[in-house]
Structures are given as structure tokens and as C-alpha cells.
Amino acid sequence: MANLTRFDPFHLRRLDPFEDMVRDLVPTSLRSVMRWQEPAIPVEVQELDNAYLVTAELPGVKKEDIDISIAGNQITISAEAKQEKMVENAKEWCNERSFGKFSRTVQLPLEIEENGADASYADGLLHLTLPKKPSSMTKRLEIH
Fold it and tell me: Which regions of the chain carry the CATH code 2.60.40.790?
């Protein structure tokens, strides 16, 4: 089965081999203003017979700043990475950290049973266990 992804015109890293070289020419103070960092939340989705396992990378985000919503077969992860205050009288020499609000919606093949869903967060990784809704799972009939 082929994997399809939505085209994002602001994420041309894979299409342009010179993107890193051009990005390095832009001063770091402008990079943070231009939001050159990737805004998407990287995810990994695995499928079991009765559930999906989703792992999302959210480094630098506190647990209370993460919101997860389930609607049918879609899961939306929203988070906010807050900018830390600079030390008084300090000048910013380099800042490559990203901050702000970002989200990611993943559409799964089958609907999710919301009541059995479980989430845990540690070391910048969000782990979700999303059981499949029994009514949406295909039933295999045996021939007698």
C-alpha cells in the first residue's frame, strides 16, 4: 500500500538539496522570526490487531501544554512550546530553538474507541494507545 502525504509548500526540505546551505546563510536572529524550523510534529504510527500505537516527538513541551482530541478516525495533537526568558543584560548570540503553538492531525484507517484510549508522556515523547472501535473492524466470515 502506498503512503500518501499532503503537500506542504513550506516544507521543501526533501525537494531542495540546497535548503540547508541557504538556511545557514540566514542569520540566526532572522531564522527565529521567519520560523524556519519545521512546524509539524513528527509521528510514528504502528498498527496492532485491535489498536494503533502513536508516538509523537514533542521536545521542550510540558505535559500540561499538550492537548489530544479524537474524532472518529482522526486524532489531533496540539501543543505549545513556550519561549524562556533571557537572562537580564544578556545579548542573544544564537537561538535555534522553536516555540509557539503547533498541531498535527493524523487520519487512521478505522475509528477509535475514545473510552479505551491511553496517553503517556516522558522525555519529550508522547505515547498513545488507541483501541480500534469494534463496530468499524472488519469481520471475517468462515465458509462452512
Answer: 41-85+93-135
Q: Are 120 and 129 in contact (CB under 8 A)?
A: no
pTM given for the model: 0.66
Q: What is the C-alpha to C-alpha distance for residues 110 and 51, in angstroms, rounded to an integer?
A: 10
Q: How many residues comprise the chain?
A: 144
Angle at 125 between CA 119 and CA 131, to 5 degrees: 30
The domain made up of 41-85+93-135 is a member of CATH 3.20.20.80: no
Amino acid at 119: A
Q: Give ∠ CA 19-21-23 in degrees, rounded to 5.
A: 65
CA separation for the pair 119, 105 (Å, rounded): 16
Radius of gyration of the chain from its Cα atoms, rounded to whole angstroms: 20
pLDDT (tens digit, 9 = 90+) per residue, 8-32?
555 544 555 565 666 666 665 555 5
